[in-house]
Amino acid sequence: MVESTLMVRLFFTGIKHSGKTTQARLAAQRTGLGYADADDLILQFTGAESIRSFYREHGKAAFMDAELSAVRKYIDGNDSFILSLGGGASDNTPLMDLMKSTGRIIYLRRDEKDMLPVILKHGIPAFLDPDDLEGSFSRIYRERDGVYRRYADLVIDLGSYGEREAAADRVIEALEDKGYVQHIR
Hints:
Blueprint: E1 9-13, H1 20-31, E2 34-37, H2 38-46, H3 51-58, H4 60-77, E3 81-84, H5 93-102, E4 104-109, H6 112-120, H7 133-151, E5 154-157, H8 164-177
Parallel strand pairs: 1-3, 1-4, 2-3, 4-5
Helix pairs in contact: 1-8, 2-4, 3-4, 4-5
């Protein structure tokens, strides 16, 4: 009997600070799959010092091109993995299309009202209007939520912040229910 190798490519997406990186790492540990973060891939691909400096120096279009190229290169070299994406991946339609055609998009969702205070703990990001933080975040949240929902093969509500292990349990259970992974650890 020939044993078949199942290719598992999971792309964890979501709004900035929704828990993509944390949950992708935990899911990779629990399933034995490889893990990567798109920001790390972009830095390796571009040789930039930081994501923010690359974005500031080269602009959004160059960043999205680098993001697409770095992720494509990673996909081409790996059969099975969990990859966490940046919160703005929803703005990069070619990237979203690439992920949809080569794997499963997992949208890790949190309620809008819970997210802004967490985001602001790290300073005001460039994509928010400092004169209208709540309004600008609400608009971006609705836009990105709509894109992620449209592309997602699976939407997982992570619940409240601070429940890392409970959220990880929900993620693994949802991935197993869909047949995307087997919990091995």
